[in-house]
Amino acid sequence: MKSLVRCVALLTMLALAMPAFAADPVPNKGDTAWMIVATLLVVMMAAPGLGLFYGGMVRAKNMLSVLMQTLVVFCLLGVLWALYGYSVAFTEGNAFFGGLSKAFLAGVTPDTTAATFSKGVVIPEYIYVAFQLTFAAITPALIVGGIAERAKFSAVLLFMVLWFTFSYLPIAHMVWYWPGPDAYTSAAAGEKATATAGFLFQKGAIDFAGGTVVHINAGIAALVGAIMIGKRTGYGRETMAPHNLTLTMVGGSLLWVGWFGFNVGSNLEANGAAALAFVTTLLATCAATVAWTFIEWTLKGKPSMLGAVSGAIAGLVVITPACGFVGPMGSIVMGFAAGIVCYWGVNGLKRLLGVDDSLDVFGVHCLGGIVGALLTGVFASPRLGGTGVYDYVANKVGDYSIADQLISQCWGVGTSLVWSGVVSVIAFKLVDMTIGLRVEQDGEREGLDLSSHGENAYHS
């Protein structure tokens, strides 16, 4: 008996003396379930949300062409995301491009995980791949609105492949790639980890859900496309009013609901920070809708449905980079700012530029994205109700300087504008030189539904 006691005591001492090995973190079922739902919500934004929103704003003879372009672009780029996009955007490479270690989703299995924004918390990598796919596929589809009603279907697809590869992927890598919070165990380890991150992450730019990556990126490309493809035949001489604002309202509402997946899902966890992103997304959209409606009512005498839904989209755009960083009151101020600035972008700046941006992608997405990115730097301040920026080495919210953060945000805005602008000019030029950007004038007058797809949206 004494021998047994000694043996147990000895084994206990050995166990205590051995170093403790932490088990690998296991995904939480609640987080996983939420990310599946969030991903589905973003899919809904593309099909049917964006298609109906854009489709209702074009003339009846081009309704199906817009639906086709948004749907097929989303699906085509979804495939490319799995082939090489995920790897280029979210693996370690240099400051501008990731590598090809996960091309064809090599090494991604049901057991592999992706980091969140909390130490020791992960989600299944497959759902992270799918969630980021929806961002990568819907962002280029936004550009369709700038060149609607006169672009060749083949030209749209070829341009999107080029732009996705050389603009979306590098900007996503620059802004969002980092090795995850668990790499920040000490100051030295933190410096080493940050050195492997994307260029704009290293500059300190913050973008919760895509103000730079999605909206500025796509918005400036749409402006470049509208300039290079030229105005629609009859623009300024013939009426080009939206043919079905009811569908635009339905599509805009689907975008709003889906945007909660976009913004709240970007938290990657179902917790209080996700609840904050939900509230700020809701409030900013309400504020922007109110602002746009009353400005239009005051200046034009009548508030319009198109104006109200445009205001809602402007609010969604402006809060996208900020939703997890700013407080509720900050989000309301940002929403009002978006309603004012984007109204001017659509009704004033557009006329000054003399550009036929068919569905006002630049005025809403690019301008709204710029306002959102810059005001994120202001209202993320804890002194103004924001969360600040977390210091993973100290494991607490770090010291916050509005001036310093604004400089970082300017890096994000400027880099996105220049990078996407240059890539867009080159890509549109290459497409025009090879297969041509624009349909024939007879086909444009007939309508792209029949001339490009042999179908009619409506039968009289």
Explain the layout of strands and helices.
Elements: H1 2-17, H2 29-57, H3 63-90, E1 113-115, E2 122-124, H4 125-142, H5 153-176, H6 187-194, H7 199-202, H8 211-229, H9 245-265, H10 272-300, H11 305-319, H12 328-353, H13 361-379, E3 390-391, E4 396-397, H14 402-434, H15 441-446, H16 448-453
Antiparallel strand pairs: 1-2, 3-4
Helix pairs in contact: 2-3, 2-4, 2-9, 3-4, 3-5, 4-5, 4-8, 5-8, 5-14, 8-13, 8-14, 9-10, 9-11, 10-11, 10-12, 11-12, 11-13, 12-13, 13-14
Signal peptide: 1-22
Transmembrane segments: 32-54, 66-84, 126-148, 155-178, 208-229, 241-262, 274-294, 306-327, 333-349, 361-380, 406-428
Family: Belongs to the ammonia transporter channel (TC 1.A.11.2) family.
Task: Please tell me about this protein's structure.
The chain is mainly α. The protein contains 16 helices and four strands. It has helices at residues 2-17, 29-57, 63-90, 125-142, 153-176, 187-194, 199-202, 211-229, 245-265, 272-300, 305-319, 328-353, 361-379, 402-434, 441-446, 448-453; strands spanning 113-115, 122-124, 390-391, 396-397. Strands 1-2 form a two-stranded antiparallel ribbon. Strand 3 (390-391) and strand 4 (396-397) form a beta hairpin. The protein is globular and about 65 Å long. Mean pLDDT is 95; it is low at 14-21.
Provide tags for this entry.
mainly alpha, two-stranded antiparallel ribbon, 4 strands, 2% strand, globular
